[in-house]
Every structure is written in structure tokens, then in C-alpha cells.
Amino acid sequence: MEAILKRRSIRKYTKQDVSEQDVQSILKAAMSAPSAGNQQPWHFIVIRKRSILNEIPKIHPYSNMMKDAPLAIVVCGDPTIERYKGYWVQDCSAAIQNILIAVEDLGLGAVWVGIYPEESAKAEDFRKLLNIPEHVIPLAVIPIGHPAETKPPADRYNDARVHSDTW
Question: Which stretches make up the Nitroreductase domain (predicted)?
Fold first, then answer.
């Protein structure tokens, strides 16, 4: 619960690298997410190459933090392996949430930078940059690093959004 309640979107990172062990832990958490019929329609692109990280802000207007992040993970969905059509977005979103919680638990920082559903140019640019097959859809890119900023936990509980039995 602590990692869930403390998790915040971190957009500033130190120059310190993220260990391969931490990356493996993050990916294990991602792949432990629930998925419809256990179809697991996800693919993950781990980017450490500085030249690629620096290209991302040129194709995504809300990703300037990539310039400082030591790595990013692009979460993609493959609708062609779905047994239950249309659930890839939910499945991959659950994987992203697990990534964000794992990152917090490891003392790192991250932020969810959405790509899909803006299928247009943004997704195509990611496909070209990362050589993503045409049938695979990039859902989000998540910069990850050691936080260079501190944010207090946010109490987002809102009793007005809770309904008992009926609206």
C-alpha cells in the first residue's frame, strides 16, 4: 500500500544509471499484471541509448523529461495475439500501473507519457524511431530514473466518488 499511496509522477532525474537488476524487477512487475484470459498482449522496449531518448521529445510534445532520464520503457500492445478483442489497452494499462508501483517501491521515479489513442503521427513516429511492427501499437512511454525532485504523497481519496449499491 505504501508504494501505491506514495507514487507520484516524477519528471526530473539525476544522472545516476538504473541497474539492470532494477529493470528486470520492473519488467517482472509489468508482466505480472492481470490480462483478459491471460492473453498478455504486451511488448516492452527498454531504451537506454541516449540518442534515441533525445529523439523522443522531437516526436512527443510532453516528453522533454526524456532528455534527463537514463532509460525509458515503451509499452506496446499487439492486438493480433488477443483472444478477447479490444482488451489489449486495459491489459497494457495494468502493466503500466505495475511498472509505476514497482518504480516507486525501488526508490526510483517515473511518469506515464501517453501515446495511444493518438494513433496519428505520434504512433507512426514511434514506430519509425523504434522499428515497431505495423500491427503493434505503442501505448505509452515511461521515462525512469533516480528522482531529482521530491513530491509529497497526494491524498486523492474522494468520498463523493463512492456510491453504495446504486448511484
Answer: 4-53, 62-146
Handedness of CA 78, 79, 80, 85 (dihedral sign): positive
Does pTM surpass 0.85? yes
162 within a domain of the structure (yes/no): no
Read off the pLDDT of residues 72-126 as tens digits, 9 standing for 90 and up: 999 999 999 988 999 999 999 999 999 999 999 999 999 999 998 865 568 899 9
Which residues constitute the domain of residue 67?
Answer: 2-149
Q: Of 101, 103, 111, 114, which Cα lies nearest the Cα of 140? A: 114
User: CA nearest 11: which of 113, 130, 137, 134?
Assistant: 113
The answer as to whether 139 is a domain residue is: yes
Is there a domain that residue 155 lies in?
no
